[in-house]
């Protein structure tokens, strides 16, 4: 059984939903040797989130972001408002989507569907880079 844990820093993103699958894969070349396993991703922030979404048509990510803006608008009368108008809506969106994902690994590859990709959902304006802990577990040389 192999266990590997690595923390990566993502670049600063503008608000919206951004594909990060390739960044994750580039950070874990060891995955190629795993026959059966799991990759767990944990985002160390409360104003961004992780999601698996369609990775073929960028309009999907734009539409998802627009829906989130409708679900958690900046003009709602939030009590927590000390850090700017986008802070509390970002916490709501992060709570709805979550800060972690688990993806199966089969024969050295993520077992994502044809149209699926891992996404960072950036809910705030003007924040710095985000950090993600990647935990890889698995066994066997891919065959």
Number of domains: 1
Order of helices and strands: EEHEEHHEEEE
**Termini separation (Å)?**
16 Å
Global shape: elongated
Largest sheet: 5 strands, antiparallel
Biggest sheet strand line-up: 1-8-3-5-6
Radius of gyration (CA) equals: 16 Å
Return the structural class: alpha+beta
CATH fold descriptor: Jelly Rolls
Number of helices: 3
| β-sheet strand percentage | 35-45%
- The residue ranges in which pLDDT falls below 50 over 5 or more consecutive positions are none
CATH superfamily: YjbQ-like
Total beta strands: 8
Task: Indicate the percent of residues in helices.
Answer: 10-25%
CATH class: Mainly Beta
Query: What's the pLDDT, averaged over the residues?
Result: 96
- The CATH architecture name reads Sandwich
Describe this entry's structure for a reader.
The longest helix has 14 residues. The two termini are about 15 Å apart. A hairpin with a 2-residue loop joins β5 and β6. This protein is an alpha+beta fold. The strands form 2 sheets. The chain has a 5-stranded antiparallel beta sheet with strand order 1-8-3-5-6, with helices on one face. The radius of gyration is 16 Å and the shape is elongated. The protein has a single domain, classed as Sandwich (Jelly Rolls), CATH 2.60.120.460.
Please give the structural blueprint:
Blueprint: E1 2-10, E2 16-19, H1 21-27, E3 36-43, E4 48-54, H2 58-71, H3 87-97, E5 100-106, E6 109-110, E7 116-122, E8 130-139
Antiparallel strand pairs: 1-8, 2-7, 3-5, 3-8, 4-7, 5-6
Briefly, what is this?
By secondary structure, the protein is α+β, with helices and mostly antiparallel strands. The chain contains three helices and eight strands.
């Amino acid at each position: 059984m192999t266990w590997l844990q690595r923390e990566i820093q993502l670049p600063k993103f503008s608000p919206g939903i951004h594909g990060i699958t390739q960044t994750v894969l580039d950070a874990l070349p060891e995955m190629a040797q795993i026959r059966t396993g799991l990759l767990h991703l944990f985002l160390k922030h409360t104003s961004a989130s992780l999601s698996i979404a369609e990775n073929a048509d960028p309009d999907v990510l734009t539409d998802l972001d627009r829906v989130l803006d409708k679900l958690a608008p900046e003009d709602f009368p939030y009590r927590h408002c000390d850090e700017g108008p986008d802070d509390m809506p970002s916490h709501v969106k992060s709570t709805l989507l979550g800060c972690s994902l688990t993806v199966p690994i089969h024969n050295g590859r993520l077992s994502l569907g044809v149209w699926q990709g891992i996404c960072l959902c950036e809910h705030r304006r003007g924040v710095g880079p985000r950090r993600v802990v990647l935990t890889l577990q698995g066994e066997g040389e891919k065959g």
